[in-house]
Write the structure tokens for this entry.
Amino acid sequence: MEIRAKGYLSPLSEKGKHSLLTYLKEWACTTDAKRIGVMYLILSLFMAVVGGVLSILIRLELMQSGPSIITDDSFYNALPGMHATAMIFFFIIPCFTGVGNFIMPIQIGAPDMAFPKLNLAAFWILPPAALLTFGGFFFNSLPEFGWTAYPPLSTSVYSPIWGADLWVMGIILVGVSSTMAAVNFLATAFNMRCKGMKMFQVPLFTWSIIVTSFLILAATPVLTSALIMLTLERTFPGVFSFFSPAGGGDPILYQHLFWFYSHPAVYIMILPGFGMINEIIPTFSRKHIFGYALMVWSMVAIAVLGFVVWAHHMFATGIAVQIRVGFMFLTMLIAVPTGIKVFSWLATVWGGSIKFDTPMLYALGFLALFPIGGLSGIVLAAVPVDIQLHDTYYVVAHIHYVLVAGSVMTIFAGLYYWFPKMTGRMYNEFWGRVHFWITLVFINVTFFIQHYLGMKGMPRRYYDYDPQFEALNMLSSFGSFVLFAAQFIFLANVVYSSFKGKEAKANSWDDGLHLEWLISSPPDHHNFHEPPVWEPIVRQHVGPDQPGGLWHRYGE
Amino acid sequence: MSVHVKNSTILRTSALLTLFAVLLIPTLALAVPGSGDMVSLYSNNGREMTELYNVIARICLVILVLVEGVLIFAILKFRRRSDDERPRQNHGDMRLEIGWTLAAAILQIYIGWITIDVMWKTEIIPENIDITIEAIAYQWDWQFRYPEHGNLVSDDLVIPAHANVKLEVTSRDVIHAIFVPDLGVKMDAVPGRFNYWWFNADGPLNQVRAQNYPTIGINERLYPSTRPDFMRMGDDASQRTISGLERQVTYLGHSRQAPELSPYAKYNAVEYQGVCAELCGKGHYDMYFRAVVMSPASFRQWVHDKQTEVRDADGPAIFAARCAVCHGAEGLGAGDQFPTLVGAARVTQDTEKDAHIGIVITGQGVMPPFGGVLNDAEVAAVVNHERTSWGNAGGLVTAEDAARVREALGQPAYPAGGVEPLPSAELMTEGQRLYQACSTCHGNDGRGLDIVPNIAQSALVLGEPAGLVSLLDNGRNTERWPGEKTPMGRAMADYQVAALLTYIRNSFGNDAGDVQPHDVTRIRSEKR
């Protein structure tokens, strides 16, 4: 068998051309950021399917009141936590890291990442981490304390199972991996930009990776330290009691440490998505991004504010009312930079020339649905309302509007957008659109109803519930089944088109602006044949009533 | 070519219509804040929060409609019409950008401002707290302790209406959260610390209307009336009993069945569902309790009933309700954490009897203490059930054993009920207070005005209590003036009737002995 791939996909050695095994070995040991990026993507999409299956199990159980397909409540209790772990730590974050690995060095005109071997190491930590994290599945000892792992429930007294220790270890490893990736991204972005690529010329996707990397670098050590404290307490009960009140510890301390990471983690999971939308909307509107500088600063503002709002996850834990007021105001302030971004995207679309290919459909779908998640965030920021809705399905709806209608929609947008660049082939546009419309409709069917469930008082992480909630749960479950099934359209499209798709042009969308669209699809091993030079974009502001302004359209 | 263009136009139009429909659903759904979606409506604090939610949701709805409107308009207007179309570039507009940044910031500050107002109203615990209750969570149930009522322990949160209730929430093991959606009560129960929450619940509406809340449409004429027929404006409300449960919880999870007839059916009360909101392990979904808001009189009656309660010591039933969730219905336990009871030394050997009783009373490790909720007879019954079921053959224990172990462990005594008579002084004090309502007609000295009968030295008052109870409950209807004697007793709990009777039988020169609440209960139930 002969491997006839082009660009960076082509075998590196003569032997690799004829032996699939050698070819795969070349992949496994590669230091090429593009290949590592693709491996990240494959791993994360696989974990997305795993997480999806877990969510389907949850929805199957919740379809009707009373125990149905899952007879063991302990197993059910493990599912939401495992679903969240799979989706957050092994799907969304690595997926963005993957796209970042592929696109970011090219966008700044670099041949590769700054530390290629570190890059490879960061990736290869993930599969064993996944095995550890989900190891509980193999010997029936799943951690039942959710992805938040609040002690004392997660201490060895109340969760005396091996699976929990493995889970904690796995998450620590994920943290190590993403820290390594973040260091690498920062070193690359600050040192390897090509000629003419000043910081305020850097494409916004790269900016989003930079900001995200700072977030990871500053937040992850806190999570790691909290988890190490938890491990010590689990392994040596009675010796360490950081969190057990019996030994003088405080369970709330863990929540502070955990949310000091996990709130920024929400932005780690959405900022690269914002970056992708910043690439896609200009390309398909044939317009430069509106308000570039404010876009950058609003991202920085989101990142900075993201560090000082963690206690809004803990409004019901009994922290003092004055402190809650402060956190509430800071939380609400995050809506300001987020609002700036949404308005700027609308202003970019305004007056453009919009082409509705699948990436753009996803970007617009994101733009339509993400505000629902953002606005329910404002509702949740108001302390008394938050306390009532805390730990109900309203919060489930909110987080899924942010992560599914937000992060996942942007991931699809980005993957469709860069698919021609990554594989050198076009995906099937028809099936891409089918995938989009089903996804758009059924995200709402699945998650919107959950707002009502929450307001009516249905708590989350319930194995069984009051029959009065049955009809809405049934509808939500039905929506989730269709939503899940529709994702196989995407997977089939990706697999089929990678091999049989139409060949893609270098500038696959004709209007691609940044450096990745100037090189061949797929790019060659070191991206550029000669060091590129970036022709700086002069960004001139125009008043709304001037030609080219917001109220004007060219040619009318 | 033209056919092709037509097809794509149809496709595009249908796609846009779908998008519109998809966006319309959430928009319409959000368009009805205030339609009862937030259910915390039955306490002062709950209504403040719901009102706040409604305001913020409306603001958000306006923003959402604006964003979606601009987006849909832009999609329709600025779609690409020809391939060589090149729009004029526009890199930004400082005035616009500063404008929407400021607008967003001001809006957020406004929302924060109105929120702080509600926070201060609902979260600062007021000075005048009427009753303090400890809510203690454990895996996987609740206990409510009433320090002001002799450390009474209840499985349900029972509170008087229109009283400022302060909850002191804590946990014995992991973090739980108390959550009563209808009352707007939610607070984490964190081991090692007390969290506080206060509220003021409306209670049963058939007696008292919610203050300043117009949406609750109880018709005023349904209130009991003693007007003569020709003056009545509506239904025969005087025949309607106003005692009784207004609303009953129908679902209490797996371990607690909600019976057809609630144990609170005899009180003037309303029930709400309470749950645990913070993931706390295996039985997290099964921590339901009732939050019962009673009229003040019913609450006093309930406290009295609770203190003098005689319960069936039904071992299997107690085991099913309190032990089976961890130890399994067949006593086999679960995992390392919950040991099996089948054949265990403590359950089968005679020498371990006291240790067995002791662990039930004080708990151990993750097992909560049951000494406060099970009296001696019940402890003995459940211990005996464990010692004789599933093939176990341990020796039996008695209630006396339980009392002895309790004493040895330094636990407060909890004998198996038997009705303790209430002290006369307590009944007299309450009776005197209640008599103030009667004194207008019957006089401060028990001598009535004109045609109103005397209480002093009245044969009816000095005779069997049954006659007086009947008069108070039914009134006296004469042809001359229907409803001459108002059925005052109908609104009174047994405890209050007993107190009033005791007072009038022992005042104004009368001397006829106490009437105990359980006597009234018996008389009333015999008549029914």
